[in-house]
Amino acid sequence: MSSVNELYQQLILDHNKNPRNCRHMDHPTKIAEGYNPLCGDHFTVFLEMDGDTIKDVSFQGAGCAISKASASMMTTAVKGVKKAEAEDLFQKFHTLVTRGMKSAVEDDIEELGCLGALAGVSEFPARIKCASLAWHALHGALASEDSKVVTTEE
Fold first, then answer.
1. What tens digit of pLDDT does each residue of 26-84 get?
2. Which among 131, 105, 137 is positioned nearest to 117, based on CA atoms?
3. Of 21, 27, 45, 64, which sits most exposed with the smallest number of CB within 10 A?
4. CATH number for the domain that contains residue 58
5. Domain range holding 35?
């Protein structure tokens, strides 16, 4: 295993064991639930918006190591950013996990930073849904005027 792959694996394991922003939010502006019926992963994403900025973000739920790590990494990446920036990150991340590192634009890889650790899931189609579940919930919450959105990955 290359040193970069080993570092990425350690990053995913760390976010799984010590997830960041894994908590219920008392007064969210938006809530979205993501559910993958194929494996049972289920997460709720909570957003506190301040105008067009994600003031705070958290998640709760249960899932495999990849889905939990991805949710944790997502919350650290989007906290404090504008809605448009979060949507842009969603698109870049989705491209990365569905098409892999080779098809991603170099600037996008740099912008994604540690999220690049999840690029390897593109080689395992069943794991793509794991890595993108919380992101789809975030995307749904940002796009919705309602406070609750349910995304079902089939």
1. 999 999 999 988 888 999 999 999 999 999 999 999 999 999 999 999 999 999 999 99
2. 131
3. 27
4. 3.90.1010.10
5. 3-152
Instruction: State how many domains the chain has.
Output: 1
Amino acid at site 1:
M
pLDDT at 94 over 60: yes
- Gap between the Cα atoms of 49 and 89, Å rounded: 17
For residues 132 and 93, is the Cβ–Cβ distance under 8 A? yes
Residue count of the chain, please give it: 154
Instruction: Give the whole-angstrom CA distance, residue 154 versus residue 151.
Output: 10
Tokens encoding 9 = 């694996």
Tokens found for residue 129: 């849904």
> Alpha-carbon distance 100 to 119, whole Å?
5
Residue with tokens 């005027």: 145
